[in-house]
Amino acid sequence: MDPISSQSPTIPVPAQSTATQSSGSSSALSSDFETFLRMLTAQAQYQDPLEPIDASDYSAQLAQFSMVEQQVLSNDLLASLTAALGTSNMASLAGWVGMEARADSAARFTGAPVTLVPAADTSADQARLIVRDTSGEIVQSRQIAVTDRLVEWDGTGTAGEGQLAPGVYRFEVQSLSEGQILSTRPVEVYDRIVEAQNVNGVVQLVMAGGDVVASTNIGALREAR
Hints:
The chain is an alpha+beta fold. It is built from 3 helices and 12 strands, in the order αααββββββββββββ. The radius of gyration is 33 Å and the shape is elongated. 16% of the residues are buried.
């Protein structure tokens, strides 16, 4: 009688791991689980009788596969919940379209006043409002009070300056102390929301001035005037 080989024959394994195959759907997981059971059966059939596989090894492998299965199912559930929440957010944000949102963005000036929210440095003794056109050129620079929290900008400057033409403008506040510039910061403005978009699960709002702002970066909302 031939001596019993000390090594078990090689058992064919699928080309892809169970974890990779299970990234599809629950039906794929079921198929992989059946394959896994067949592999365990073959492993038991061809094991070395002199060194049999411990039963705890089988339990450990079953537990490991079960953990992978549960993790994949959890990921699928989270993906479904995320998609549902995204749809819910879009539905709730539909009411935002047409309202005015406060954000760091450009504003479309039509001749009606635009509400600005400057935030000068607290240590400044002077503040200037700087207005830029779409090319980035400064078209207006005027002094404002350091304590101003809301400025109704109507497009006209001081000392009889004429009104700027309708268009898209961007605003900055320059803080000064004893004539020295401390900082120059963007100014948040109230601009009308014209569209809400879902981009890769992130809700973004298209402003009348053309900027696209994430809904999480909106500081305030109000009815359009």
